[in-house]
Design a protein that fits this description.
With 463 residues, the chain is α/β, with parallel strands linked by helices. The protein binds zinc ion (ZN) (2 copies).
Length: 463
C-alpha cells in the first residue's frame, strides 16, 4: 500500500524548508532523539516506541533512538507530562520551535495521543483498520514538524468499543493499537489477567478496566475461593439456606445463578444488597486501576415478584410494565453500601430492557459517575430527532430524558451486531454524534461493537 507511491513521492516531497521548521527525519536519516522523562510509565514508553517505529517506517529509513539526552546532530523530542490547564483529561499539547519538539499530556495516555497526532500531522499516516494492512501512508524521507503549538482535548470522555464474539482474553493488540491511533480509549474486563504479555500490552495501550456487566447474580454468588467446578453446588447450598435471596416467580422461589437469561435475585432483600456490595468492593480492590463497575441486570426482563419488590414499583410504571424505579432503588442501595467501604469506587448505571426509561419513583444517586443508555433498536436510517420516524421519536424522548437527569450518559449503539443486520449507517452515526454534542450537554460519547480481526473466535463463528 505504501511502497508503490515511493517514486512519485521523491519528486513532490522536496519540502519548503524554512528556518522555523524542525526536521525530525532527513532523507531517511533520524534527525531527532526521543527523550522520556524519568519514571515514565508503560504508556509513555509505548508512545516513544511508536513514535520511533513510525518515523523510521514513514521515512523508509532508520528509527530515531530513544535516549536520555539528544544524540549529536539531532534535536530532542521530549515526551512529558504537563499541568497546563488548557490540556484536559486525555488531551495533549504539542509545541515545536527551532530547537525542540515537546509532546505533553496530563497523563501517559495524552502523550500517546500526542505522538499519533505528530505522526498523522507531519508524517501523513492514517490507520484505517487493525493490522499492518490497514496502515495508509506515502513514504516521506524527510519529516518536518511545523513551528507552533497544537492543543487537542477529547470531545467525548467515553470512546470505547465492545469487542464482541471473541474470547474475552483474546490479546487483540492490533485492534487496541488501531483504536488508540484513532483517539479511542478501550475498557476491558478486570478479572485477574494471568497472561503476562496481555497485562503488559493492555497497560502500554492505557486500557481501563471494568467490572460488572450482567452482574446481579454473579455478584451475589461471587466467591473467589470456590473453584468453577464447585460453583453450582455452592450456589445450591445458598439457595437451600437462603431462598429469600432468590426471585419469587409465580409464587415460588427460583434457583438462579449467572448473568445470562436467569431472573434477577430479590433486589429488595437487605442481605442481597450487602452481599452484592461487599463482592463488588472485593473485585474492585483486586482490579487494575482505573476501574469502573457497570451495574447491569441478569440479561432478562424477569424480576422478583415478592411483596417487598412489587411495593417499590409506582403504579404508573407497573401499568406500563416498567421496572426503572426498582432498578434504581437497588442500584442506589448497593452504591450507598459500596461507598461506605470504598469511597474511591467508580459506579456506572445502565438503562436497558424494562428499566430503560428514567425512574419516576426515585432519582439516581449523585455518586453515579455515568450511565450507559442502551440504544439497541434505534433507527439508523433517520436522524435521532426525526419526528416522522416513529422509532426514533421514542429514542429521542428517551435520550433527552436521560440527558435532563443531569448525570453524564453515553449511548450503547448496537450498529452492527457481529456483522448481522448491517446497514450503511456511518453518516447517520456521525450526524448523531454532532447532534448530541450540540443539544445534549450531558452526553459523554458513543459505544458500539466490533468483531476484532485479530481476536480468537469460538468454534461457532468458524463458518
Ligand atoms: Zn423480592
Ligand atoms: Zn426511522
Amino acid at each position: 500500500m505504501k511502497r508503490s507511491s515511493l517514486c512519485l513521492f521523491l519528486f513532490c516531497a522536496l519540502p519548503l524548508l524554512s528556518f522555523a521548521d524542525l526536521v525530525l527525519m532527513e532523507k531517511g536519516q533520524p534527525k531527532c532523539t526521543i527523550i522520556l522523562r524519568k519514571g515514565a510509565g508503560p504508556t509513555e514508553k509505548h508512545a516513544a516506541k511508536e513514535l520511533a517505529h513510525f518515523l523510521g517506517k514513514i521515512a523508509n529509513g532508520k528509527a530515531p533512538v530513544i535516549a536520555d539526552t539528544a544524540l549529536k546532530g539531532t534535536c530532542p523530542v521530549y515526551l512529558e507530562l504537563t499541568d497546563d490547564e488548557q490540556v484536559k483529561e486525555e488531551g495533549f499539547k504539542i509545541t515545536a520551535n527551532d530547537n525542540e519538539l515537546r509532546i505533553a499530556g496530563r497523563e501517559g495516555v495524552g502523550v500517546l495521543y500526542g505522538v499519533y497526532k505528530v505522526l498523522k500531522e507531519y508524517g501523513g499516516i492514517r490507520w484505517l483498520f487493525p493490522g499492518k494492512d490497514g496502515e495508509y501512508y506515502k513514504v516521506k524521507p524527510t519529516i518536518i514538524a511545523k513551528n507552533g503549538t497544537i492543543i487537542e482535548n477529547p470531545s467525548f470522555s467515553h470512546r470505547d468499543i465492545s469487542r464482541v464474539c471473541i474470547y474475552w482474553n483474546s490479546p487483540v493488540m492490533d485492534t487496541l493499537d488501531w483504536g488508540m491511533r484513532n483517539n479511542m480509549r478501550f475498557q476491558s474486563r478486570a478479572e485477574k489477567i494471568s497472561l503476562k504479555n496481555l497485562k503488559a500490552g493492555r497497560e502500554a495501550r492505557a486500557v481501563k478496566s471494568q467490572l460488572g456487566g450482567h452482574c446481579f447474580s454473579p455478584l451475589l454468588t461471587y466467591n473467589p475461593d470456590i473453584k468453577a467446578k464447585d460453583k453450582k453446588a455452592y450456589v445450591q447450598k445458598m439457595f437451600k439456606e437462603h431462598p429469600e435471596y432468590f426471585p419469587l416467580i409465580r409464587g415460588k422461589r427460583v434457583f438462579t445463578m449467572d448473568g445470562g437469561v436467569n431472573p434477577q435475585p430479590c433486589t429488595t432483600n437487605a442481605d442481597v444488597i450487602k452481599i452484592v456490595a461487599n463482592n463488588a468492593v472485593k473485585q474492585f480492590r483486586n482490579a487494575q486501576k482505573p476501574c469502573i463497575l457497570i451495574f447491569g441486570n441478569n440479561d432478562t426482563t424477569q424480576w422478583c415478584q415478592c411483596a417487598n419488590c412489587l411495593a417499590v414499583d409506582p403504579q404508573a410504571e407497573r401499568d406500563a410494565g416498567i421496572i426503572s424505579t426498582r432498578y434504581w432503588t437497588f442500584a442506589n442501595a448497593v452504591l450507598a453500601e459500596i461507598k461506605k467501604q470504598a469511597p474511591d469506587f467508580r459506579f456506572e448505571g445502565w438503562t436497558y430492557q424494562n428499566y430503560s426509561r428514567a425512574p419516576i419513583g426515585v432519582k439516581p444517586d449523585k455518586r453515579v459517575e455515568q450511565i450507559m443508555v442502551s440504544n439497541h433498536r434505534r433507527c439508523w436510517k433517520h436522524p435521532l430527532d426525526d419526528k416522522n420516524c416513529p422509532t426514533n421519536k421514542w429514542y429521542y424522548d428517551y435520550n433527552k430524558e436521560w440527558n435532563d437527569t443531569g448525570v453524564p450518559f453515553y449511548s450503547y449503539d448496537e450498529l452492527s451486531y457481529a456483522g448481522y443486520a448491517f446497514l450503511p449507517v456511518a453518516r447517520c452515526w456521525v450526524d448523531s454524534l454532532i447532534y448530541y454534542k450540540k443539544y445534549m450537554p450531558n452526553y459523554a460519547g458513543s459505544h458500539t461493537e466490533i468483531c476484532c480481526p485479530d481476536g480468537i473466535f469460538p468454534k461457532r463463528f468458524h463458518r
